[in-house]
Design goal:
The complex is a heterodimer of chains A (462) and B (75). By secondary structure, chain A is of the alpha/beta class. Chain A has helices spanning 31-39, 42-48, 88-107, 147-163, 171-174, 181-187, 196-212, 226-241, 263-280, 294-301, 313-325, 370-376, 381-391, 405-411, 423-431; strands spanning 2-3, 13-18, 21-27, 55-58, 68-74, 110-112, 120-123, 126-129, 135-137, 284-288, 305-310, 331-335, 361-366, 392-399, 434-441, 448-454. The chains are: A alpha/beta (462), B mainly alpha (75).
């Protein structure tokens, strides 16, 4: 398979995959830094704290032997996610983890040479640095080379989400190397200039960049005292910790409180989903339209690694806070608009992979979702079928018929141009790609739950 | 913070301070403006940090003398 397409900027090494195993090659040019990382105690401290992905050295043949020093096998991270898929608190926790890592590195005479949000992943519920080659020896204190990257990848988006609008986090999808500080400065409310940290690290920072753009300034050897460097980190930490966002007022934040189901019917739905999951025993589940993750947790309790997607940043925020509060390790909440899922981005479209390239899951959960796709977004049922079939082998799908109050609500303000949206039409559409394994009517409602298994692609259509 | 005249003064001071030759050591361009800004605010941030650490120690001593559980400085 070879070198992974997201791993090419840093000459220190790269990630490659071979026979389904992910390796990291350390190049000769990084030898002294790598040896120092391992011998000075920093690696052990960070791995122990869960802040850096653990690895072991292997004698597997390097991918590029001419420049290789070592080959590492990093601990597996179940699912790669990107900052534009994180909720506010996930980005904030990733920022705080980056600063904590840099703080520990300074104590060991090292420093982070990059502070990319893409180097952080969520594994077992917590943010962890994936890039073992991010450290360099820093015997003398000097300005932090990754300061700009920290501000564009973390501080600026967090400030925009907290002080202007949480949806501005999506700017990270356009600006793949972080939000330009002049743009952030223009979008932030004027009062953010009254905050010392935001005035310094965003507004003044943007002006300083503008002033020195393209100007040759002689900088070498300009020392910055260790105290100043600690002060900078402490100030950034305070700035990030001081940014808050309360999930309220968005579309679905309180959706779970609404009366889609009477309590007894909800329990029945939970039991049916539980039984269907137990029948399949999936290792990986994608819960699409997960809201705050109630059903994701049912799958997680059965041992599955669950990615819990929702379009609403407030629902994902609540879901993530629950993960943190309960120290859950199996659920990863992410923001995703199914009508416009994460595309392939960056160089050659390959630096950040599209959602479906990160699958498929063993099982897809699609509860109380179909009517939003088919009616709110006008997606024909056949196309919903195709997407679900690409996303996973098994499917638990809830059919919500037209006479359901939630569907009636969606139809209240628009013409009903969905003659095919019937139970019969639904079953026919999904039969094109799936075999029906079980269908259960939910008592006290006209909704039905279906367990389906995708047919292998080579099998003829029924 | 009135960023206009204050920042001009700070940037001027920094420009005056930056007169030694350069070499690059990072694979990422740290950005001249980002680098200069750190040097400009270094003194202030260092001083704030020193005061904060010092204050945390005083508070810790005070708490200990009151028989409460001591708390260390944030960093």
């Amino acid at each position: 398979m070879g070198q992974l397409p997201a791993s090419f900027r840093d000459p220190s090494g790269f990630v490659f995959a071979r026979d389904g195993v992910v390796y990291r090659q350390v190049n000769q040019v990084y030898r002294a830094d790598y040896d120092h990382l391992m011998s000075c105690g920093l690696y052990a401290d960070l791995a122990e704290a869960g802040l850096l992905v653990a690895h072991r050295e292997t004698d597997v043949a390097p991918e590029d032997p001419a420049v290789a020093y070592k080959v590492l096998v990093p601990q597996r991270v179940p699912f790669i996610s990107y900052p534009y898929e994180w909720c506010f608190s996930q980005l904030r926790d990733a920022a705080l983890a980056t600063l904590a890592i840099q703080r520990m590195a300074l104590d060991r005479g090292m420093s982070l040479k990059d502070a990319s949000a893409y180097n952080i992943q969520f594994a077992r519920g917590r943010p962890v640095l994936l890039d073992t080659l991010s450290f360099e020896r820093a015997p003398q204190a000097r300005p932090w080379v990754a300061y700009r990257q920290f501000c564009t990848h973390f501080l600026a988006p967090l400030a925009l989400m907290s002080r202007r609008d949480v949806r501005l986090g999506q700017l990270l999808r356009v600006h793949i190397d972080g939000i330009p500080l002049d743009l952030a400065a223009r979008l932030l409310p004027w009062r953010t200039r009254l905050s010392f940290a935001l005035a310094t690290h965003v507004h003044l920072h943007a002006r300083s960049q503008q002033r020195y753009a393209g100007k040759p300034v002689r900088l070498a050897g300009r020392a910055m005292s260790r105290t100043a460097l600690l002060g900078l980190l402490d100030n950034l930490r305070g700035a990030v910790a001081g940014l808050r966002w309360q999930p309220a007022g968005t579309e679905w934040g309180d959706y779970s409180k609404e009366e889609s189901y009477a309590p007894a019917a909800l329990q029945q739905k939970q039991r049916v989903v539980e039984d269907m999951l137990a029948r399949v025993r999936p290792a990986t589940v994608w819960d699409l339209g997960a809201n705050t993750g109630a059903f994701s947790r049912i799958a997680a309790r059965q041992g599955a690694e669950v990615i819990s997607f929702d379009v609403d940043p407030a629902a994902v925020e609540k879901n993530y806070r629950e993960v943190v509060r309960q120290k859950e390790t199996q659920v990863l909440p992410l923001v995703l608009d199914l009508a416009n899922p994460s595309p392939g981005l960056g160089w050659h479209h390959r630096e950040r992979t599209a959602l479906l390239e990160r699958g498929p899951a063993d099982l897809v959960l699609a509860l109380a979702l179909l009517h939003h796709l088919a009616i709110s977004n006008n997606v024909p049922l056949e196309r919903v079928t195709e997407f679900m079939a690409d996303a996973g082998r098994w499917l638990i799908m809830e059919f919500v018929p037209k006479d359901d109050p939630q569907v009636q609500r969606l139809l209240a303000t628009r013409a009903d141009v969905f003659p095919g949206y019937t139970r019969d039409g639904f079953e026919r559409a999904f039969a094109r790609r799936y075999d029906l394994r079980e269908a259960v009517a939910l008592p006290g409602s006209t909704r039905r739950l279906y367990l389906m298994e995708r047919r292998p692609p080579e099998a003829p259509c029924a | 913070m009135r960023s206009g005249s204050k920042s001009k003064l700070l940037l001027l001071l920094a420009s005056l301070a930056l007169l030694t030759p350069t070499n690059a050591w990072a694979y990422l361009d740290p950005g001249t403006g980002s680098y200069v800004l750190q040097l400009i605010v270094a003194g202030l941030l260092g001083a704030l940090f020193t005061v904060k650490t010092f204050w945390a120690r005083i508070v810790a001593v005070f708490r200990r003398s009151n028989g409460r559980r001591p708390t260390g400085p944030g960093e």
